[in-house]
Specification:
The chain is α/β, with parallel strands linked by helices. The chain has six helices and 15 strands. The strands form three sheets. Strands 7, 8, 9, 10, 11, 12, 13, 14 and 15 form a nine-stranded mixed beta sheet that branches. Strands 1, 4, 5 and 6 form a four-stranded mixed beta sheet that branches. It has a two-stranded antiparallel ribbon with strand order 2-3. The longest helix has 13 residues.
Length: 259
């Protein structure tokens, strides 16, 4: 079945016209995918899709994304970035590997609007793709929430009523209206990327306006398997409420810069 697949000239130049034709015709590559940007589900036969080529010095990785998220393009990456890209393709529920306090773990991050105490805030919801162990411990116990608690995150039982505390040293980075990274204070006073966009992520105008108005973004986090992927604000709000009810939700208010 033919696909709604855009293969840009620069991607076509790298993979060749024959391979590009096979991709568009549906002869190679998956029909369904997890968007390389938002991690939402996609189907190349029903959703406008972009072909992305992550190009390292010796390795190339082909990925798909919603066209509304990223146009088809070649994205230069380091060889060190190739392994987590391949891992993300092997397990579509996982986003590209990033740094979580406690060690490198693949996480997903979802933008949303959250009403807290009657005020609408821009929010980011984070969920790791695996249990997060305490550094130096081989056990399977998930320490994600306790590690975040040591970083200033607070347990939140009622996300629609409780404004999270301000996280010192953390920041949400924007550039020209695009979301680029979430930074946190690492070892030795260095600032490290907790999450880094593969390409700058476009955010809705309402999200951007709320971030500008309040100067902060609410950052919610829950252990693996708690939230899941939701496309609507209402669905995500319900998932946050349920996580709070189960004492599985932590949050902080993070200053936003670059807007």
């Amino acid at each position: 079945m033919s696909r709604l697949l855009d293969v840009s000239p620069e991607v076509r130049a790298e993979i060749g016209d024959d391979e590009a034709a096979r991709l568009v015709a549906g002869e190679t590559g998956p029909q369904t995918y997890a968007c390389a940007s938002c991690r939402g589900e996609g189907d190349t036969t029903s959703v406008e899709t972009s072909a992305l080529l992550y190009l390292a010095e010796e390795t190339a990785v082909l990925a798909f994304a919603h066209t509304r998220c990223i146009p088809s393009q070649v994205i230069p990456v380091s060889e060190a970035a190739v392994e987590p890209l391949l891992a993300a393709q092997a397990n579509p529920g996982l986003a590209v590997q990033t740094v979580v306090p406690g060690g490198p773990v693949p996480i997903s991050i979802t933008g949303s609007m959250v009403v807290c105490a009657g005020v609408t805030y821009a929010a980011l919801v984070v969920e790791p793709g695996a249990a997060v162990a305490r550094p130096g411990t081989p056990g399977a116990q998930d320490e994600f929430l306790s590690l975040l608690g040591e970083r200033g995150f607070a347990p939140i039982a009622t996300p629609d009523e409780t404004l999270p505390p301000l996280l010192g040293g953390w920041s949400v980075q924007m550039s020209d209206g695009y979301l680029t990274a979430v930074l946190f204070p690492g070892a030795g006073g260095r600032t490290e990327a907790w999450w880094q966009a593969q390409t700058p992520a476009e955010v809705p105008e309402a999200w951007l306006n709320a971030a500008k108005t309040h100067g902060v973004v609410l950052l919610f986090a829950a252990p693996v398997g708690t939230i899941g992927i939701h496309t609507g604000n209402d669905e995500l709000a319900a998932a946050l409420d349920e996580a709070g009810r189960r004492n599985l939700l932590a949050a902080g208010s993070v200053p936003v810069s670059g807007i």
